[in-house]
Amino acid sequence: MNLRRLYMVLAVLLVVWVLLPIFLIATLAFSDRPSVFAWPKGLLPQQFSLETISFFFGVEGVWRAIRNSLAVAAMTLVFSVLLGAPAGYALARYRFAGADAYRLLILMTRAFPLAILAIPLAVRFIQLGIYDTLLGVALVHTALALPFAVLVTSSLFLSIPKELEEAAWTLGCNRLQAFLRVVLPLALPGLAATAIFAFVISWNEVFAATLLTLRERTLPAFLLTSLNDSPLPFRFAGGFFLIVPALVFIFVIRRYLFTLWGIASR
Amino acid sequence: MASIRVENVEKTFGRFKALNGVSLEVRDQEFVVLLGPSGCGKTTLLRIIAGLEQADKGRVWIGDRDVTLLPPRARRIAMVFQNYAVFPHLTVYENIAFGLRMQKVSPEKLKANVERAAALMHIENLLGRYPAQLSGGQRQRVAVARALAVEPEVLLMDEPLSNLDALLRLEMRAELKRLLAESRTTTLYVTHDQVEAMSLADRIAVMNAGAIVQYDTPMRVYQEPASVFVGGFIGSPPMNFLRLRVEGQRVRLGSLDLEPPAEVGAEVLLGVRPEDLEVYPAEQPQSFAAQVLVVEPLGPHLLLTLNFAGQAFKATVPPDFPAAAGQTLWLRPQPSRLRWLEPGSGRAFATG
């Protein structure tokens, strides 16, 4: 029983550690200016006001950064699904030489630190003429999101019995028709989750976006570079705006992430 | 409707030889069961006929078409899978209509076929439901209806009853038999359940280790097994095999004097089914003595395990037969039901 209590305490600490900053950022983003600057800050929500948020959106370059972020995230989403889903399908359905090695290699790409890659990547991008373009950033983000896309979709396709496809074949479908009529409708929620996850990865990514752009900043890159010389309300509002989409999306697709991580859900 | 002809099909998975040059003919409108233990290659053979698996060697004919290289969709077959493979995102109606929609039949024919197939399987009242709202038995009915709706030339069934519970399986078995006798579709049915095979088949193809070891009517397969394997696999309890010495072209079994086939060697196996042994509590002429080891009351009869010269075998007697462990009984096999087999190869000698 003591062990159980210890677990509970640890769990509560962990939850507080994660949630407290989010809570503070959220409450202060919706407070008026005096309470943002007040010290010590109260734990409970202060004067509710949209002043901070509207100030944030009024700052020069914010809208453009948001537009860039959306465009990059959208491109990342499309690339990840279009490249990741076929790879995941192949991993799930075919036994081919080196399948296991391939699966491992996909994960290895995530173990490779981006910091080492960044300089050569920047040089190469300049040579290719895609430095400081949204496409360039989206390509790097796709590389980051792809391992997840491949692994999630592969477990997704694995969960759809092969017999369903075979039944479709015997009933007159070719492979593409069977995929479109049987597999795709069943995989759609999971594919949507994969897409959203790729979107979130791109939306939150700051390192590559900062290094590979000068003028075409995404929102995290824009905030990172302007954080030091911007007022406190701007930081809170910006932080809030970065966190929220990620939180919402992750919450929506949590079931699929659990299956990816092998945790029994439902 | 069409016949099926399989010629010398071979299939290897890695190092495992699943099919070892199998040939099989199924006549038009015939119901043939592929029976064998798991891993004998029966499902692989069925999948090769369906086109879901490609044979390494050999050819497959459906009717007079060589379908060896055709994809499943061009073979005019339908298949029922062990796990039903009913499409979970479609209603029962759309499931049954799936194959017809792919064939682009007219809306009138589609509706008529779906309703006829649903009526055959008694699922007319389930047409609007989704598979998740159905029981296992109902899903199975949908799977069969979906296969029948496309009016296939050949119906392939892969252990369709094995996921049902025992009672439901019994019920579906009788229903399938009625249904397929009505629809007169050429059917190839895979199972490892010998009772299912016996009850359904026009002919049974018994498979073992990637080859067909006997292909005959159920009663012939039961009464005249081609080998020790067939005799032991079919029948519950299986056939008894007594190893006996041959002396001067005669075999002595107690006071019983038997004449084995002319081509026997020094020893021979005598195969006899437990129910083909007449059992007497007192000594009889033309019989042999054996000690009772175990008595198992099974309801319709008693199952005796007996010992004859160090060899255990089984016999069945009526439930009121006075039998106890340790007792000596006299047995006489029915002469017409004896089966002589070669001890080395396990193969039966040809009977005259």
Summarize the helices and strands and which ones pair or pack.
The complex is a heterodimer of chains A (266) and B (352).
Chain A: H1 2-29, H2 33-37, H3 51-58, H4 62-93, H5 99-111, H6 114-128, H7 134-158, H8 162-170, H9 175-204, H10 207-211, H11 219-226, H12 232-252, H13 254-260
Chain B: E1 4-13, E2 16-26, E3 31-35, H1 42-50, E4 57-62, E5 65-66, E6 77-80, H2 92-103, H3 107-120, H4 136-149, E7 154-158, H5 166-183, E8 186-191, H6 194-200, E9 203-208, E10 211-216, H7 218-223, H8 228-233, E11 240-245, E12 251-253, E13 256-258, E14 267-272, E15 277-280, E16 288-297, E17 302-308, E18 311-317, E19 328-333, E20 339-341
Parallel strand pairs in B: 3-8, 3-9, 6-7, 7-8
Antiparallel strand pairs in B: 1-2, 1-4, 4-5, 9-10, 11-14, 12-13, 14-20, 15-19, 16-17, 16-19, 17-18
Helix pairs in contact in B: 2-3, 2-4, 3-4
Protein name (chain B): sn-glycerol-3-phosphate import ATP-binding protein UgpC
GO molecular function (chain B): ABC-type transporter activity; ATP binding; ATP hydrolysis activity
Domain ABC transporter (chain B): 4-234
Can you characterise this structure?
The complex is a heterodimer of chains A (266) and B (352). Chain A has 266 residues and is mainly α. Chain A contains 13 helices and no strands. In chain A, helix 1 packs across helix 12. Chain B has a six-stranded mixed sheet with strand order 6-7-8-3-9-10, sandwiched between helices. Chain B has eight helices and 20 strands. Chain B folds into two domains: 225 residues, P-loop containing nucleotide triphosphate hydrolases (Rossmann fold, 3-Layer(aba) Sandwich), CATH 3.40.50.300; 105 residues, Nucleic acid-binding proteins (OB fold (Dihydrolipoamide Acetyltransferase, E2P)). Chain B is of the alpha+beta class and 352 residues long. In chain B, strand 17 and strand 18 form a beta hairpin. Chain B is 24% helix and 33% strand. Chains A and B meet through helix 8 and helix 9 of A and strand 6 and helix 2 of B. Chain B: Pfam families: ABC_tran, OB_MalK. Chain B: One of its GO terms (molecular function) is ATP binding. Chain B: Keywords: ATP-binding, Hydrolase, Nucleotide-binding, Transport.
